[in-house]
């Protein structure tokens, strides 16, 4: 049994909104976190990187869960992990516990990342690219808002912990909204099981995995550290946070336009052009950071914003 397309799309967008909030929100206040918890630079690197490691590791578990239950139920579980982990990370006292409470956040993102394409396939089989572009745009908006508002919220509420707690609110709200819009239409049927060797990737699957991995590496590095880079260049923290926000915000039109223009065509050229754009922006940030950030950070946002949904449609 299926719900109305508009209602289901609302649920997808609401769930996706939360998938970048606690990744993009860390970078703008990373120096405050380190000062408050005594976190070393190595630990700070782990804090920004561990969600992506967990996303990789728990994607396999997510596939198994989807097969045994259904994509909609897996996303419900993902939102619970995201909400709980985000709130816990706001209140734990030490650097080690801040790292530990990042684990459920990474697990939640991994499970949702596996579940959402299944929901899209089940309800929007005729236009998966358009809906994929919509939910990538939504997660980009969530990341942009988190990056732009984290420093002002921290200043207004009395510290990064209160800002982190406030960022858990969308995830808690998303749980009942997801149930009302998608979960109640859930048939309880998961994906069809694969054959004995069905889990082995093809050569093209391996290459696609490499591209996914390198895109994630560039996104993780930029979103986690571009704000800190410009703070060290002498910018005010609130201004530097806007560089992270611009990456996420420019991903929105890039995702929507790329999916629209590439519909019904080979997406190789679009993916290649997007990857070149990402490469140029990364080299600019690395080699000439004194060049105004309005050039490199938005350029990166356009490139990665187009590349990510293009890759999602290929499997």
Strand content: under 5%
Which structural class best describes the helix and strand composition?
A: mainly alpha
Task: Estimate the helix proportion, in percent.
Answer: over 70%
Question: What is the arithmetic mean of pLDDT?
Answer: 85
- Assembly state (oligomeric): single chain
User: What is the approximate shape?
Assistant: globular
Give a verbal description of the structure.
The two termini are about 25 Å apart. It is built from 14 helices and no strands. Helices cover about 80% and strands about 0% of the residues. The longest helix has 30 residues, at about 130-155. By secondary structure, the chain is an all-alpha fold.
Keywords:
315 residues, globular, 79% helix, 0% strand
List the topology elements.
Blueprint: H1 5-17, H2 21-24, H3 30-37, H4 41-68, H5 71-91, H6 95-100, H7 103-123, H8 128-157, H9 160-167, H10 169-181, H11 203-232, H12 237-261, H13 268-287, H14 293-313
Helix pairs in contact: 1-7, 1-8, 1-10, 4-5, 4-7, 5-7, 5-9, 5-10, 8-9, 8-12, 8-14, 11-12, 11-13, 11-14, 12-14, 13-14
Short description:
The protein is mainly alpha-helical and 315 residues long. Helices cover 79% and strands 0% of the residues.
């Amino acid at each position: 049994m299926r719900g109305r397309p508009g209602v289901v799309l609302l649920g997808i967008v609401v769930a996706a909104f939360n998938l970048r909030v606690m990744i993009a929100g860390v970078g703008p206040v990373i120096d405050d976190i380190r000062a408050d918890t005594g976190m070393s630079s190595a630990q700070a690197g782990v804090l920004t990187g561990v969600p992506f490691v967990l996303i990789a590791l728990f994607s396999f578990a997510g596939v198994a869960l989807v097969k045994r239950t259904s994509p909609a139920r897996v996303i419900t579980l993902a939102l619970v992990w995201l909400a709980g982990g985000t709130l816990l990370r706001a209140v734990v006292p030490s650097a080690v516990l801040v790292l530990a409470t990042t684990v459920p956040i990474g697990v939640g993102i991994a499970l949702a990342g596996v579940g959402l394409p299944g929901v899209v396939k089940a309800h929007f089989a005729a236009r998966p690219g358009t809906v994929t572009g919509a939910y990538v745009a939504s997660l980009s908006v969530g990341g942009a808002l988190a990056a732009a508002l984290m420093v002002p919220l921290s200043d207004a509420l009395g510290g990064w912990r209160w800002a982190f707690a406030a960022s858990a609110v969308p995830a808690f709200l998303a749980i009942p909204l997801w149930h009302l819009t998608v979960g109640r239409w859930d048939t309880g049927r998961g994906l069809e099981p694969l054959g004995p060797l069905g889990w082995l990737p093809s050569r093209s699957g391996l290459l696609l995995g490499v591209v996914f991995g390198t895109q994630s590496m560039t996104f993780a590095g930029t979103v986690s550290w571009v704000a800190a880079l410009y703070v060290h260049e002498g910018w005010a923290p609130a201004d530097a946070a806007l560089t992270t926000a611009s990456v996420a915000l420019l991903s929105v039109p890039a995702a929507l336009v790329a999916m629209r223009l590439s519909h019904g065509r080979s997406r190789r050229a679009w993916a290649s052009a997007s990857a070149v754009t990402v490469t140029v922006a990364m080299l600019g940030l690395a080699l000439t950071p004194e060049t105004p950030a309005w050039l490199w950070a938005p350029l990166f946002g356009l490139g990665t914003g187009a590349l990510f949904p293009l890759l999602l449609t290929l499997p």
